[in-house]
Design goal:
The protein has 9 helices and no strands. The protein is mostly helical.
Length: 248
């Protein structure tokens, strides 16, 4: 347990200082701005079309989409960017072999890496997403209807659905990063998975403000997480990790 904590803390510090992590923070900060202004304009246009009872479902769907996009940026994208760069650096400098020489299981090393990239993304992502939803309410919804509008399914997606998905993808990213010579391939794999999930779920007829959408994200994240755990049991060994580092 002590070895796990040492590696997790070390990796967390390295992730927060690494250039790729800082680039990820900048990309997220820049990406949130157009999402906010675009969705504020959409909400104001919807609210101006008809009475509240008529446009309420559309407003909920637009608000849910806003929270979903911001949450994906913060929790999933940022988590990937924080983790991949340090894995590449550690392999190139031979630090990975030093870590494996310590009395720690390879699965503990994997989980330490997962925690080190997922935890800061979660700590940043949830408050930022809730802040954007609050700002959209204050600037667009409250002036029109006189009250805060934040359906419970949207909160479930932001607080549980996307974090579960982010945890599953963080596990997948770090597993691939430990096993392949170029950990950047892990980020490519996650980009493909995120694009697929974010396109498939809405096409199933699920609204962004529905419980079904929140549950679908939890299920998708759970499947990715479970698949990563099963794959780790079969493929994650110290020999494979060392060989992947020496092929750089």
């Amino acid at each position: 347990m002590s070895g796990f904590l040492v590696i997790a803390v070390h990796s967390l510090r390295a992730n927060l200082r690494h250039r790729q992590g800082l680039i990820g923070v900048a990309v997220v900060a820049i990406g949130i701005v157009p999402v906010f202004f675009a969705m504020r304009g959409t909400l104001q246009e919807l609210l101006a079309r008809a009475d509240w009872d008529v446009v309420r479902p559309w407003v909920g769907n637009a608000l849910g989409l806003s929270g979903y996009l911001v949450s994906l940026l913060c929790v999933v994208f940022l988590g990937v960017m924080l983790g991949v760069g340090t894995l590449t650096q550690e392999k190139a400098k031979g630090a990975m072999e030093t870590l494996l020489a310590a009395p720690i299981r390879e699965t503990a090393l994997w989980w330490a890496k997962v925690v080190a990239c997922f935890l800061p993304a979660l700590v940043v992502g949830v408050p930022v997403t809730l802040g954007i939803l609050w700002a959209l309410n204050v600037t667009a919804i409250v002036p029109a209807v006189g009250e805060i509008f934040l359906p419970a399914p949207i909160l479930a997606t932001v607080l549980l659905g996307v974090p579960v998905l982010g945890l599953g993808l963080a596990a997948l990213v770090n597993l691939i990063g430990l096993l392949v010579a170029n950990p950047n391939l892990a980020s490519l794999a996650v980009v493909v998975v995120v694009i697929a999930i974010s396109n498939i779920l809405p096409r199933l007829g699920l609204e962004f403000a529905s419980w079904a959408f929140a549950y679908a994200n939890m299920a998708a994240g759970g499947l990715v997480f479970a698949g990563s755990v099963v794959a780790a049991r079969f493929f994650l060994t110290k020999q494979r990790i060392i060989l992947s580092a020496r092929r750089l």
